């Protein structure tokens, strides 16, 4: 188990490095189903000018596409899928993971600004009615390496920060599989209604923008 986890996290860190090299916040992930990698993802926010294209959302889309291509039930596949990601999922992504009913997330460093797995909100474990299933988290795996990549990114200015499309604009789009099923507005409203920390809708929007 330890050897497999090390191999999967190596791949996730490789995806994070690829994100960094492409001017993105260096977060990388992969989804493993029955010991097979179904999806790899990295942040694509700057590349797509779409604030929802976090690594986890990219990977979710890939798994949904795989299920469609192989005539598999997404609920069954996600229920036996493990996410390996370099940084704690944000509130938006943690909500998506609950909706997909992914049982286990292994992540590197904490996301102290927008973390949805305990750092800011406990989306992963709280009793939230009608929002999928809670999931287990294993934190701190290769955290130092993940932090170093984040430091490298934030030492440089993000040239695309002013050109990313807002979540409200994305609600009008249907270019990605996950967005077609669960709009950003729905996720934001869910956070607003179920999480006492998000006093206003604007605070909820701030939470889901990493």
From TrEMBL:
GO molecular function per UniProt: tRNA-specific adenosine-34 deaminase activity; zinc ion binding
UniProt keyword Transmembrane present: no
Gene3D superfamilies in the record: Cytidine Deaminase, domain 2
HAMAP family, per the entry: tRNA_aden_deaminase (MF_00972)
Name of the featured protein: tRNA-specific adenosine deaminase 2
Role noted for this protein: Probably participates in deamination of adenosine-34 to inosine in many tRNAs.
Xref: PROSITE patterns: CYT_DCMP_DEAMINASES_1, CYT_DCMP_DEAMINASES_2
């Amino acid at each position: 188990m330890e050897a497999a986890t090390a191999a999967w996290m190596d791949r996730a860190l490789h995806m994070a490095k690829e994100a960094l090299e492409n001017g993105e916040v260096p977060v990388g992930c992969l989804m493993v189903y029955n010991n097979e990698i179904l999806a790899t993802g990295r942040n694509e926010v700057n590349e797509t000018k779409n604030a929802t294209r976090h690594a986890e959302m990219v990977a979710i889309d890939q798994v949904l596409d795989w299920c469609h291509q192989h005539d598999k039930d997404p609920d069954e596949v996600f229920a036996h899928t493990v996410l390996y990601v370099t940084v704690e999922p944000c509130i938006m992504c943690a909500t998506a993971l609950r909706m997909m009913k992914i049982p286990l997330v292994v992540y590197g460093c904490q996301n102290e600004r927008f973390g949805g797995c305990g750092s800011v909100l406990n989306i992963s474990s709280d009793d939230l009615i009608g929002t999928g299933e809670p999931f287990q988290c294993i934190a701190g795996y290769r955290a130092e390496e993940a932090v170093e990549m984040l430091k490298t990114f934030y030492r440089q200015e993000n040239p695309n920060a002013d050109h990313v499309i807002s979540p409200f604009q994305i609600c009008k789009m249907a270019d990605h599989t996950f967005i077609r099923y669960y709009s950003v507005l729905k996720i934001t409203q869910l956070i607003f209604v179920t999480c006492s920390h998000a006093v206003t809708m604007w605070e909820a929007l701030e939470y889901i923008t990493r």
